[in-house]
Write a structure and sequence with these properties.
- The protein has one domain.
- Helix content is 67%, strand content 0%.
- It contains 3 helices and no strands.
- Helix 1 packs antiparallel against helix 2.
- The model has no long low-confidence stretch (mean pLDDT 84).
Amino acid sequence: MRELYYDLFLAYTNIDLLTDLATLFSRVEDAAVAATPREWPAAGSIDGADGEIHASRAEEMERQKIRSLEAMLNAAVGRDRAAPLGRPEHPGRPYGHGLDELITAAMKDTR
């Protein structure tokens, strides 16, 4: 169940990253168009449609993955497979401490 939960969290995070990436590409495209001298021919103009299509396909794949993971999690706990779970919270640190803190604590215990 933990692995399914982490996979669900990752799928939502991937959608956030895809959205941020699409926004970034749009801003870069706008900046490139604005910086291009008007007297240059338009033959080499930027077409952002391909990037948008790929981003929307990737986002739809992540949304399908979310539906699948939600169904598996619901089945694991005996709920209706179609019941919405919502966005999972950040899992945080598994032991409540960072790696450096765990190493320091382990070193103190061995002395």
